[in-house]
Amino acid sequence: MKIHKWGLFLSFILLCAALLPATAHASVKYSTYTKDSRGNLIWLQPAYFPLGVIGQNLSAPDPNNSAAMTSSPMKNPKDIFVDAKNEVYIADTGNNRIVHMTEKGRLLRYITLPESPFNKPEGVFVTKDGSIYIADTGNKRVLKLDNNGKVLQEYKRPESRYIPDTFVFDPGKVMVDEREFMYIAVHGSYEGLVMLDPKGKFQGFFGANGTAISPLDALKRMLYTKKMYANEVAKRPEPINSVATDKNGYIFTVTGGMATTNQLKKLNVKGDNLLRSSSKSFGEIAPWDVPVGPTATGPQLIDVTVDQSGNMIVVDQQNKYISHYDASGNLLYFWGGASAVGSSQVGLLKSPVALDVNARNELFVLDDQENIVQVFRLSEFGQKVDQANQLTLSGRYEASEQPWNDVLRLNEQFAPAYLGLAKSAFKKEKYEEAKDLFKEAGDQQGYSDSFWQIRMQWLQSNFSWIASVMLFGGILYMLVDKFTAKREFRARWHNRPRTQNRFISNLKLALYVLKHPIDGFSAIHYENKGSYLSASIILLGVYASLLISQFATSFAFNPKTFVDIYSTFTQFFIAWIAWVVANYLVSSIYRGEGRFKHIFIGSAYALVPYIAIGVPLAFVSNVMTMSESSIYHFVGNAMTVWIGLLIFWKIQNVHNYSFGETVMNIILTLCTMLVIGVLIFIIIGLTSDLGSLLYQMYQEVTLR
């Protein structure tokens, strides 16, 4: 009997252990996340909690028995809309009908058209007066119904000379603005939304996406003739998947396909995208769900809605994540994830295709695989974030302090909270506090603005003694220079004996190269000056300068707060050694006179400007703001150009090349570096496979 009990106990433990990974994975996926300024994932308190499921127990009168009801579940629904009365409309595509129910899921009616049946309707929109617009996809039309379901008007393919003959009118989603203008998302239409006036007259295409041109496409345009380029496959913009509007009349669109930026747009009546960045990526994925492989694509945004606070909510059909952005397009948080295969799990999604919110900001998510609607409400964390963010966006920074502090008590890593508190501190002229908070939030512009105010206050307080020191210091310098001009000690200093130490002389040669590059590199070649030791010390100095630049540069110009010294070391020295080896190999074949030693030393000496300029620039950046970024970048670019010219002159003089030969040598060297990289990659791969094979053979021999 005891053995039997212990056996049951052990069986239970093993069962729990077997189920633990799946359970843990599901709970992780259901969590809410955000990202900091560097894209690192941050776990948050749940922003939404599931309220329940509606739409799974629909029933209709039995045609054979008027007193009985028969089950009539949804089939492959494609769109959901919550009207001003919080009633829910669903485009039940597979059943060729519109389902009308209460927000609690009680069926009110099925909307069908016996005289002109729907054929795979995929979109539904209801105006404030109760008019129902339906994208009847299979019949290639949009219908306007009154609140009783009677057809008021039918809109088919509009006629206009501005519409291409190849245009196919397959409406997928429809939206109507306050003027009763329709915006129709058409399947496969790269021209944008079809805009019709209330009478169905074509008013133009609206909100079209731009064509993504790769660097290879740009090169083809430059090199190909018109006839050759005409034979290429045409590059088309991605079609718009869905469209929505908010109470302020803005129009929102989402795009999937191969689009990697601007998948979410907030458009005004002119069609201008109002979101802050013109090339921002939308749609969030947890790292463990990022697709990989040659056919992998980014987030596939299928639908968008706007809540009562103006926050944009988008759903990614492929990865099953729901992302929330504020009215300016800044990420608040994202959550979701796919439910386990073969089971249904409340709060997780199988195939989300559409979503909408009601007047209480409850979120309705339509699943076309489960044929249900999941309903979610904001958690305490979500409510606090929404309240605080609305106060911040409306400019009421001080009033937002308490809600943001409440948010931080729930999760101290929430970057938008630090940003809101930073704006409040800036408004109250607490610039030191604001600077630190902006840095914590990852806002470079806010950090720079705060520092500008701190610098201005310091200059105003200390200008008098700074000006006095500069004035009297200048006068003192001129007097000392004048009265000591003919003194003997100055003559002795200028005529002092120079050091004969070869090592110091080699280091001085590196400085001489900065002022006289042609003479300096010629001395390396013809006079055999320079040494491996001095070149190695300079390389270590450049590596130290790289680290100092990353550590010491102001946050306004370098947002990185973590520096990987090992990665920096590896990348720098591998690239430099590959350059030296490749240049030596090319020069040996391409009539170069320089030896390996000359190339090694000259390539090291050419990097001295990074020590001379890069380190001081990093420290000086800490007294600069982003308003002086043009100066900062000019100096940095000048340093890069200087290094490039030194490398050019090094190759020209060490190998005794002409200008054209030098250019060809550089091109061949870069190509050789690429080939070396590919070969190393192949060798590492083959070595790894060989090692694995030998290990397996060893196991086979030893085990047998």
From TrEMBL:
GO terms for molecular function: zinc ion binding. Pfam families: NHL, Yip1. It is a multi-pass membrane protein. InterPro entries: 6-blade_b-propeller_TolB-like (IPR011042), NHL_repeat (IPR001258), TPR-like_helical_dom_sf (IPR011990), TRIM-NHL_E3_ligases (IPR050952), Yip1_dom (IPR006977). NHL repeats lie at residues 117-148. The chain crosses the membrane at residues 463-480, 532-553, 565-586, 598-619, 631-651, 663-687. This is YIP1 family protein. The lineage of its organism: Bacteria, Bacillati, Bacillota, Bacilli, Bacillales.
